[in-house]
Amino acid sequence: QVHVVESGGDMVQAGGSLRLSCVASGRRFSISAMRWYRQAPGKQRELVAQITSNGTTNYADSVKGRFTISKDGAENTLALQVSNLKPEDTAVYYCNTLADSGLGYTNYWGQGTQVTVSS
Predict the structure, then answer these.
(1) 19-69 pLDDT per residue, tens
(2) For a designed S-S bond to 80, which of 3, 20, 33, 41 qualifies (C-beta 3.0 to 4.6 A apart)?
(3) Burial of 31: CB neighbours in 10 Å, binned 0-12, 13-18, 19+
(4) SS3 readout for 50-75
(5) Residue 22 CB coordination number (10 Å)
(6) Of 38, 40, 41, 44, which is closest to residue 96 (Cα–Cα)?
(7) What is the pLDDT of residue 91?
(8) Contact status, residue 34 vs residue 108, Cβ threshold 8 Å
(9) Which pLDDT score is estimated for 63?
(10) Is the CB of residue 102 less than 8 Å from the CB of residue 82?
(11) SS3 of 81-112
(12) CA-CA distance, 78 to 37, in Å (whole number)?
């Protein structure tokens, strides 16, 4: 079992920045990829950014050039630097970890962290 916890969400004005963090913990697991998703009220959850175990990154078109995903000093930690925030970035941001804890690869989710951008 892998436990995922996000932090760093806040309320900011348009144009502002935040740094979201995610930590995956558990006993003896191997991570294939870590991702940030977001879900705005009334909308489907969408993939924002992904980083694989070899460091390859991918971004949604809507956040390219403004968001940066990275491992935050350790293989099981993840960061999302979000800059030049827009009101449409308002959402609950979720960390997703694709990991194998001995029973095959499984997606593990955190509880989410709220980002609110005011105009």
Answers:
(1) 999 999 998 888 999 999 999 999 999 999 999 999 999 999 999 999 999
(2) 20
(3) buried
(4) EEECCCCEEECHHHCCCEEEEECCCC
(5) 26
(6) 38
(7) 98
(8) no
(9) 97
(10) no
(11) EECCCCHHHCEEEEEEEEEECCCCEEEEECCC
(12) 13
Q: How sure is the predictor about 73, in pLDDT bands with cuts at 50, 70 and 90?
A: confident
Contact present, 8 and 20 (Cβ < 8 Å): yes
pLDDT confidence of residue 81: 98
Looking at residue 16, what DSSP letter applies?
-
Q: Which residue has the tokens 């078109």?
A: 61
Task: Name the residue with tokens 């960061």.
Answer: 79
Report whether 76 contacts 11 (CB < 8 A): no
